[in-house]
Amino acid sequence: TQLLEQSPQFLSIQEGENLTVYCNSSSVFSSLQWYRQEPGEGPVLLVTVVTGGEVKKLKRLTFQFGDARKDSSLHITAAQPGDTGLYLCAGEFRDDKIIFGKGTRLHILP
Amino acid sequence: GAGVSQTPSNKVTEKGKYVELRCDPISGHTALYWYRQSLGQGPEFLIYFQGTGAADDSGLPNDRFFAVRPEGSVSTLKIQRTERGDSAVYLCASSLSSNTGELFFGEGSRLTVL
B28-56: per-residue pLDDT in tens? Predict the structure, then answer.
């Protein structure tokens, strides 16, 4: 069974703090994506990582892909209220099926 | 528009009825995915198409669920004899091909079974 575990499930922090969310699996991914979802909308792609050890930055967001391509992390620096939302990781497996984790619901308090 | 379009946006039906949900992908996208999302959960994989064929339907919960994509563009998810447990948001996403891993989602069809 292909599963993606995300942690934490919920995170509520003050504006200006840093945070990291994690995505783990026992399976190897061909690629991994991070999405953000707002209420009433579909998920929106933030980044794709493909190579083990890869690090990508998107403004205050830093994404890292594990060396073995089984895990990933998303780090947000100096969180802002606009970062509030549901963050989802999705892994693409060799058969091209794309599986999502349950998400991390992030709430940034002003 | 240029994005993925899903209709209806909301559907309320009674237990036992038949429902069809439609997805119109981004033009030129060959891969199309269906997911189901319950409140507070991540999207649950149902099926994906590469062109007209269902490349993987392992996520369909049972034989009441069926999906087609006859011309390799628009797809319809069909649910027979709906049950209250089928209530969820059904999300459709398309991708330029099945090996890019980058999905573009519609806004979903919210199904409520009374």
Answer: 999 999 999 998 899 999 999 998 998 89
Distance, CA of A110 to CA of A59 (rounded, Å): 20
- Gap between the Cα atoms of A49 and B49, Å rounded: 23
A/B interface, count of CB pairs below 8 Å? 67
CA distance A7 to chain B (A): 13
Torsion of CA B69, B75, B78, B84, to 10 degrees: 150
Q: How many domains does chain A have?
A: 1
The range of the structural domain enclosing residue A51 comes to 5-109
The CATH code of the domain that includes A105 is: 2.60.40.10
Pairwise CB contact (< 8 Å): A97 & B56: yes
CB–CB of A100 and B58 under 8 A?
A: no
Residue pLDDT, tens place only, B48-106: 999 899 889 999 999 999 999 999 999 999 999 999 999 999 999 999 876 667 899 99
Q: What domains appear along chain B, each with residue ranges and CATH number? A: 5-93 (2.60.40.10)
Per-residue pLDDT tens over the stretch A42-70: 999 999 999 999 999 999 999 999 999 99
